[in-house]
Here is the input.
Amino acid sequence: MWLILALSFSFTGSVLVYISNKNQRLIKKNLSQFWRKIGYCAWLLAFFSWYQTHVMSASLFLWFFTISIMLMIIPLLSLMLDSNKHKGSQ
Here is the structure.
């Protein structure tokens, strides 16, 4: 249960932080800075969820690892979605 919560908070926080960035390409207009703060709160909740199941050092590692992986995957996902739009128009 805690693992699913930790992963969902990490994913939600990563999406909100990425979409509130001015250089994102997932949606046309970026979100306000309020949503970035909500994303940071989701990351904090993800850390506490990891801490419920693991010791401090392991939870800190898993927290950093999941956030970094998701922040790498989300821009790649936007590139794949963008390339699918171009394939349909050709």
In short: The longest helix spans residues 56-89. Residues 2-89 form one domain.
